[in-house]
Amino acid sequence: MIFEFWRCPASNARNCLDALERCEDLDEHLWFRLVSTIGSLDVLQGGDTGLDYKIDLTALKYIMTFARQNYGIVLVDLPSAINAASIHILQQSQRIFVVTAPDIASVHIAKVRWLQLQNLDLAGNAFLILNRQGKADGITAAEIKNIVGVPLYGSFANDGEAVQNALLSGSKISTGYKLGRELSTFAESLRNGPVANQPRKKGRFSDLFVIPKMPVV
């Protein structure tokens, strides 16, 4: 499953903020009223937290425990800034993906995030994802890897047409595009990894593609 924390929802659907407020009442019936299901994937959308909103760490622990008990893989989409809530999630993560684009500003921020992970003693779980990669970038994936200092896990092509078509049709990116094939390969690598192959405590929920990550864009 996928969590999207601290992001405005795409619709008026229930979201992560509802889950936080009702965390002590969570059961399968309530959970499936909160998530959006897309094929075999469940998504808990982020809500508009506002500038003054503070995540209740106790409530967050309820949600994370519930998700880990019911899904083989859990992916959490975190904001680039590191705060107490994101640290709590990162400390439970078996993989952390630092996402960067191939421009100098993004690579610099990725390096800063890598140093922060080192200070938190979490660098050993971190990998680099190169997003929007193109032939005219002026900097190679190997060079970015060396600058940031994080092992490169994978890269995704810069394909605005593929993304736009998927958005307009309300579907996943077709494997007819290079980007679609790269995303499918990435998802398979997560599903076939040691995290996903661990037995679930409860077997009643749909399988999810999930690993905690920290985007840096």
Binned strand content: 15-25%
Low-confidence stretches: 5-12, 195-217
Mean pLDDT, all residues: 81
Strand ordering within the main sheet = 2-3-1-4
What descriptors fit this protein?
four-stranded parallel β-sheet; alpha/beta; 16% strand; globular; 8 strands; 217 residues; disordered C terminus; four-stranded mixed β-sheet
Structure explained in plain terms:
It contains eight helices and eight strands. The two termini are 22 Å apart. It is globular, with a radius of gyration of 17 Å. By secondary structure, the chain is α/β, with parallel strands linked by helices. Helices cover 38% and strands 16% of the residues. The chain has a domain of 104 residues. The C terminus is likely disordered.
SSE order and pairing:
Elements: E1 2-4, H1 16-21, H2 28-34, E2 36-38, E3 41-44, H3 57-70, E4 75-77, H4 84-91, E5 96-100, H5 104-119, E6 126-133, H6 141-148, E7 152-157, H7 160-169, H8 178-191, E8 214-215
Parallel strand pairs: 1-3, 1-4, 5-6, 5-8, 6-7
Antiparallel strand pairs: 2-3
In short:
This protein has 217 residues and is an alpha/beta fold. It has eight helices and eight strands.
